[in-house]
C-alpha cells in the first residue's frame, strides 16, 4: 500500500472550510460534474458496488448492494434519508464532517441521490448539533444558489431537494426504521423487517438510508475510482466467501483516557493499540489501559491484552465484541472501575430503549436496577449470572427484539462480566462481605430520578 | 378560533406552515411544529398540542403520542431562559462529567431537570452530546462548552442571562 493520504478530513483544518468557495477551490463538486457527465445512475451504483464500500454508520452493510434493493423502474418518488442522528456514545465523526465540511456531505448526498434516482433527501440531524445545523443550512442555501441543488442540476435532467430535519434527543432515531417513523411524525418505534426501507420506507415509498460518512466516501469513490478505494484497507478473508472485506479510509474517533482525543483518518484495519499510541499519544497520566471500547459503547469491550485487534469490520468480532460499530474507540485506564463502566452503559441503554419490545424495555431496566444495587454494596455473586442471562436473551441475535438496540445493551454486559469477572466478584465480596441476601432495589439516586 | 383564545400566534402558525411544502404528509410536520412552538414558549402546553393537531389535520392524541415519546418537550411549565445539557455518558464520565453535574446541582441548588428559582437556568443531564473529543462537555442553549472543569462549568452558567 502506498503512503496513506487523508481525504475525508483533508479540508477540515483550512480556514472557512465550511464554505462553498473553500470547497470548490479544493476541487469540490468535480466528482459530481464527472458523474453527471460520464455515468448513468446504474453506472454509479456499479461503481460503488465495485468499491466494496460498506456503510459507516455501524452495521457495515455494503452500500452498493443496499442501493440495488430498490425496485427497478419505480415511478417514484424515491427518498434518501441521510442518517445524521449520530448518538452512539464515543462517536463524533459525523459532527466534524457536517460542521467543518458540510459541502463534502452534500456532494456525496447528491451523487447518491442521482444513483438511486431519489428526488428528495432528508438529513435527519440530531437536535444536539446546533452548529452542524447552522452550517448545513448555510451550505444547502449555497448549493441551491450555485445550481448543485434544485431543478435540472448543472443543466442535467436531474432534480433534487435537500432538507434538514431535526430530531429531539432520542438515540433510537439512528436505527434506520426508527428514523423513518420519527421523520413521518410518529414515535420512533423501529419497524419489523421485511419490508426493508428500499422496498417500503419513508411515506411507504422506496427509501435509502445512508450515514453521513458513507456518503462522503461515495464522493471520493466517484472522484478517484473503485480501484483507489480497494487499494486501501483489508481484503476479504479468503476462508469466508461472504466477507466483502474492509476497504477504504475510515474516521476513527478516539476519546476517554488518552492524551490526545480526536477524530483521526486511517486505513481500515489499523489496530486499536496503534490508534491509541500513534494518534492518541498513549494513555493519559502515564498509565496503562485496562480496556477499550472498540466502536461505540454498544460494541462491548476489548481487554488490554486484546488491543492489537485490527479495527476492520471483522476484527472486533474475533475478540468477542459485537462488531466495528462506528469505530469510536474509548479508552479506560487501569484505575477505571469496570463496575462503574457497566453501570454507566446500562443507564444509557435503559434510558434509550424505546419501550416497544418487552425483552429490551424490561431487560435494560432490570439490568440497571441490579447494577445500582451492586454498586450500593448489596450485590450477590449470582447477580452476575442473572445479568448474563439478560444479556444472552435480549436482542436480534437471540431473536427477541425488533431492532439491534438491545444487542448493544447486551454486549457491554457480556464482555465486561466475562472478561473482567474477577473484578466484579472482588467488588461484590468487598462491598457485601456478609453476603447479605436481598434483592430489594436501592433508592434511585437523586440525579437518576429525573429526565424520564 | 378567535385570536384571543389561541396559544399559537399568527407568526408561529406561519413558521409551522412554512414546513408544509417539504413533506408529502402533514403528519411529518409534527416534529418541526413541536420545535417551533418549544423555541417560542420553552414548552408545548396541551392547548398548543390541540392547535398543532388542528393545523396538521391530525387528532390531538396523535400529536401528543409523538410528543410524549421524546423526553424533550415539557408540557406543565416552561424551562428556564437557558436550558443547559450536561453530558453523563461514558466518555464524559471518564473525565469528570458526573462531578460537573454534581457540582452544578449544588451551586445552582437544583436537581437535574430542575429550574433555578429565578427562572434563569434549567439544568438537564444529557446522553452523549457527540463531542467526546472535548469531554467533559455541555450544551448551554445552542453553544457547546468544551473540556469543562467544575469551576469553568459554573462560570459559563454564571454568565448566562
Written account of the structure:
The complex is a heterodimer of chains A (452) and B (161). Chain A is α/β, with parallel strands linked by helices and 452 residues long. Chain A is 41% helix and 12% strand. Chain A has helices at residues 20-25, 30-38, 41-51, 63-68, 93-100, 102-116, 130-146, 176-183, 212-224, 226-230, 272-279, 315-318, 338-352, 358-378, 381-393, 405-419, 421-431; strands at residues 79-84, 120-125, 161-166, 207-211, 233-234, 246-247, 249-256, 262-267, 289-293, 302-303, 328-333. In chain A, strand 9 (289-293) and strand 10 (302-303) form a beta hairpin. In chain A, helix 3 crosses helix 6 and helix 14 (358-378) packs parallel to helix 16 (405-419). Chain B has 161 residues and is α+β, with helices and mostly antiparallel strands. Chain B folds into two domains: 3-69, Arc Repressor Mutant, subunit A, CATH 1.10.10; 82-159, Glutaredoxin. Chain B contains seven helices and four strands; from the N terminus they run ααααβααβββα. In chain B, helix 2 runs antiparallel to helix 3 and helix 3 packs across helix 4. The longest helix of chain B is centred in the N-terminal third of the chain and has 12 residues, at 30-41. The radius of gyration of chain B is 18 Å and the shape is elongated. Chains A and B meet through strand 3, strand 7, strand 11 and helix 13 of A and helix 2, helix 4, helix 5, helix 6 and strand 2 of B.
Question: Which descriptors apply to this entry?
Answer:
heterodimer, A: 452 residues, alpha/beta, Rossmann fold, Ubiquitin-like (UB roll), de novo design (two linked rop proteins), 17 helices, disordered C terminus, B: 161 residues, alpha+beta, Glutaredoxin, 2 domains, 4-stranded mixed β-sheet, 7 helices, elongated
Write down the Rg of chain A. 22 Å
CATH superfamily of the largest domain in chain B: Glutaredoxin
DSSP helix fraction of chain A = 40-55%
Biggest interface pair, residues each?
A-B, 62 and 52 residues
What is the CATH-assigned architecture of the largest domain in chain A? 3-Layer(aba) Sandwich
Helix content of chain B: 40-55%
- The number of domains of chain B is 2
Amino acid at each position: 500500500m502506498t503512503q496513506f493520504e487523508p481525504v475525508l478530513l483533508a479540508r477540515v483544518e483550512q480556514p472557512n472550510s465550511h464554505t462553498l468557495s473553500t470547497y470548490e477551490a479544493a476541487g469540490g463538486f468535480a466528482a459530481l460534474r464527472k458523474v453527471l457527465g460520464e455515468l448513468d445512475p446504474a453506472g454509479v451504483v456499479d461503481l460503488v458496488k465495485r468499491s466494496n464500500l460498506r456503510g459507516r454508520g455501524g452495521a457495515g452493510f455494503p452500500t452498493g448492494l443496499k442501493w440495488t434493493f430498490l425496485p427497478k423502474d419505480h415511478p417514484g418518488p424515491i427518498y434518501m434519508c441521510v442518517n445524521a442522528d449520530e448518538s452512539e456514545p464515543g462517536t463524533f465523526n459525523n459532527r466534524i464532517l457536517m460542521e467543518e465540511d458540510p459541502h463534502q456531505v452534500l456532494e456525496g448526498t447528491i451523487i447518491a441521490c442521482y444513483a438511486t434516482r431519489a428526488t428528495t433527501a432528508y438529513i435527519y440531524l440530531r437536535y444536539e448539533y446546533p452548529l452542524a445545523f447552522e452550517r448545513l443550512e448555510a451550505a444547502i442555501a449555497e448549493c441551491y444558489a450555485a445550481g448543485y441543488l434544485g431543478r435540472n442540476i448543472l443543466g442535467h435532467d436531474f432534480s433534487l431537494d435537500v432538507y434538514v430535519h431535526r430530531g429531539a434527543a432520542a438515540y433510537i432515531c439512528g436505527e434506520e426504521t426508527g428514523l423513518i417513523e420519527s421523520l413521518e411524525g410518529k414515535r420512533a418505534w423501529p419497524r419489523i423487517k421485511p419490508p426493508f426501507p428500499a422496498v417500503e420506507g419513508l411515506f411507504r415509498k422506496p427509501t435509502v438510508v445512508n450515514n453521513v460518512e458513507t456518503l462522503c466516501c461515495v464522493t471520493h469513490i466517484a472522484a478517484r475510482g473503485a480501484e483507489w478505494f480497494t487499494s486501501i484497507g483489508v481484503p476479504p478473508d479468503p476462508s469466508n466467501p461472504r466477507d466483502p472485506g474492509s476497504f477504504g479510509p475510515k474516521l476513527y474517533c478516539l476519546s476517554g483516557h488518552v492524551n490526545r482525543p480526536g477524530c483521526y483518518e486511517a486505513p481500515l484495519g489499523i489496530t486499536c493499540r496503534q490508534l491509541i499510541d500513534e494518534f492518541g499519544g498513549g494513555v493519559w497520566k502515564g498509565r496503562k489501559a485496562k480496556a477499550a471500547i472498540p466502536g461505540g459503547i454498544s460494541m462491548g469491550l476489548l481487554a488490554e491484552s486484546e488491543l492489537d485487534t485490527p479495527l476492520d469490520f471483522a476484527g472486533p468480532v474475533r475478540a468477542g465484541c459485537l462488531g466495528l460499530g462506528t469505530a469510536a474507540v474509548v479508552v479506560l485506564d487501569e484505575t477505571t472501575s469496570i463496575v462503574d463502566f457497566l453501570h454507566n452503559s446500562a443507564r444509557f441503554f435503559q434510558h434509550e430503549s424505546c419501550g416497544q419490545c418487552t425483552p429490551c424495555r424490561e431487560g435494560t431496566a432490570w439490568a440497571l436496577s441490579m447494577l445500582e444495587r451492586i454498586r450500593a454494596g448489596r450485590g450477590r455473586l449470582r447477580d452476575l449470572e442473572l445479568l448474563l442471562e439478560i444479556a444472552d436473551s435480549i436482542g436480534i441475535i437471540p431473536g427477541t427484539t425488533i431492532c439491534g438496540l438491545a444487542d448493544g445493551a447486551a454486549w457491554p454486559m457480556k464482555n465486561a462480566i466475562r472478561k473482567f469477572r474477577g473484578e466484579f466478584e472482588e467488588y461484590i465480596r468487598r462491598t457485601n462481605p456478609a453476603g447479605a441476601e436481598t434483592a430489594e432495589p436501592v433508592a434511585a439516586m437523586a440525579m437518576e430520578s429525573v429526565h424520564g | 378560533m378567535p385570536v384571543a383564545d389561541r396559544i399559537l400566534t399568527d407568526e408561529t402558525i406561519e413558521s409551522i406552515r412554512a414546513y408544509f411544502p417539504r413533506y408529502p404528509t402533514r403528519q411529518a410536520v409534527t416534529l418541526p411544529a413541536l420545535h417551533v412552538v418549544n423555541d417560542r414558549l420553552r414548552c408545548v402546553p396541551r392547548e398548543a398540542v390541540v392547535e398543532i393537531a388542528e393545523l396538521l389535520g391530525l387528532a390531538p392524541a396523535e400529536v401528543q403520542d409523538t410528543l410524549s415519546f421524546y423526553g424533550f418537550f415539557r408540557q406543565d411549565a416552561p424551562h428556564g431562559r437557558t436550558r443547559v445539557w450536561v453530558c453523563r455518558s461514558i466518555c464524559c464520565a471518564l473525565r469528570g462529567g458526573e462531578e460537573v453535574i454534581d457540582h452544578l446541582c449544588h451551586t445552582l441548588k437544583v436537581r437535574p431537570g430542575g429550574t433555578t428559582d429565578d427562572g434563569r437556568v434549567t439544568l438537564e443531564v444529557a446522553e452523549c452530546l457527540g463531542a467526546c473529543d472535548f469531554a467533559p462537555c455541555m450544551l448551554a442553549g445552542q453553544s457547546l462548552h468544551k473540556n469543562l472543569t467544575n469551576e469553568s462549568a459554573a462560570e459559563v452558567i454564571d454568565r448566562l442571562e
